[in-house]
Amino acid sequence: MKLKSYCALTHQGPFLEINEDAYDFDLDHQLFFIIDAFGGAGIGDKASVKIKEDLKTYINQLTDDPDATMPLYWSARWPMEGNALANAMIKSHQALHKANSQVGLNKRAGASLACAVKTGDLLILSQVGNTSVYLSRHGKTSSLFLPDTHQYYSADPQGPSALHYPVGAFGFFPELTWSMREVKIREGDKFLFLTEGVAPRVELQEISHILSRNDADGQYKLNDLLKLSNERGNYSNQTAMILEF
Questions:
Q1: What mean pLDDT do residues 78-82 have?
Q2: Nearest 5°: phi and psi at 182?
Q3: What is the distance in angstroms between the CA of the first residue and the CA of the last residue of the chain?
Q4: Domains and their CATH numbers in the chain
Q5: Hey, how many other C-beta atoms are within 10 angstroms of the C-beta on 117?
Q6: DSSP label of 105
Q7: What are the distances in angstroms from CA 156 to CA 32, 43, 152, 194?
Q8: E strands along 94-138, which residues?
Q9: pTM
Q10: Alpha-carbon gap, residue 94 to 73, rounded angstroms
Q11: 154, 157, 211, 238: least buried by Cβ within 10 Å?
């Protein structure tokens, strides 16, 4: 199944001066991802750049060599590309966790991630922390991943910002936890990736309506989503990506 179009948009949001979010594509290896980093100016933004570089480097190493062995993780459940993606995430996490261990808590960075790698007619998706992924198929939109945040584990009334803090994150905990699934791509499928600056303030029905518009290109759809989130009080960095098949 051929990727017909793809686009992404990232912005610091209406109140922040630094954008710690990021996105990237690697069309040679059919890798697509968004990053929602945190830690503050000069910390989170640098971490997102480093994670981008590491993910692409490790994916290249593991998928370009047909005799490569997976150094940290292997599951018979996933094809080679899925295992390569898991290993790339683990290696990138370990590099950031090591860097964090050498500095004080106020200088440590972390990051959430949503990514996909395409192999044939399969899209293998993975998620860490506070990101969301949706699939629009035949006019119906479904959530593929729920954010891994305290919202689903805690009833502590510390306010919405505390509940949206990620449970799993690159760099912050010794072990990286992630979710992974594969989807057989069908003609007309649209995959949407959102960071915390967009997803919590946009309803599934609204996402479905925006994605199903035939009179708007991907960039217009993403602008609509970011604008809608900002109108409802977003204070965070924002990143969105859409893949259309």
A1: 91
A2: -120, 145
A3: 7
A4: 5-244 (3.60.40.10)
A5: 24
A6: G
A7: 35, 28, 11, 25
A8: 110-119, 122-128, 131-137
A9: 0.92
A10: 13
A11: 157
